[in-house]
Specification:
mainly alpha; about 0% strand
Length: about 160
């Protein structure tokens, strides 16, 4: 719950000019007006929370006095989760490491099983791809899930 304590502990007013950092989207205006009345924008933009965590933060802010209807709170949670949600580390690794030597389109055209991806990525590591064992597993899992064999629909 350290993230919650941090969110509560950083209540300060932020200048309207800082609102330019918020991405466009449904909920932006509510975040600009309601959240920014107490918090610097960086309190929001520096976080990477799950949707559940954002919901807990918004609920906590409402209990502390933030004036939001249920519909507005739901829009804020959706906006924050979409724009400041938890990053997909496996996808980032795949994009950063694989694209260093290969065009990502080349990879996305393949349709390999988990074991085939494991062998292929093992070969890349043997050739010098800088990944830890944990990152290796994350990349293999990501590729198998997103670029695995397409199964025929059962009749």
């Amino acid at each position: 719950m350290a993230w919650f304590a941090l969110a509560l502990g950083l209540a300060v007013t932020f200048p309207a000019a800082a609102a330019d950092k918020l991405p466009a989207g449904d909920g932006k205006r509510i975040v600009e007006t309601t959240c920014s009345s107490c918090h610097e924008q960086d309190v929001v933009t520096s976080k990477r929370y799950t949707k559940q965590q954002w919901r807990a933060v918004v609920d906590a802010m409402i209990s502390e006095g933030a004036s939001l209807t249920k519909a507005e709170a739901a829009r804020v949670v959706e906006y924050l989760a979409k724009n400041f949600g938890e990053k997909d580390r496996a996808k980032e690794l795949y994009q950063e490491i694989c694209s260093y030597c290969h065009e990502l389109e080349r990879i996305t055209r393949q349709s390999l099983t988990r074991e085939e991806w494991r062998g292929l990525i093992k070969g890349m590591v043997d050739e010098g791809a800088p990944v830890t064992e944990e990152e290796f597993s994350m990349i293999v899992d990501y590729l198998a899930e997103h670029f695995g064999p397409i199964r025929e629909k059962s009749r």
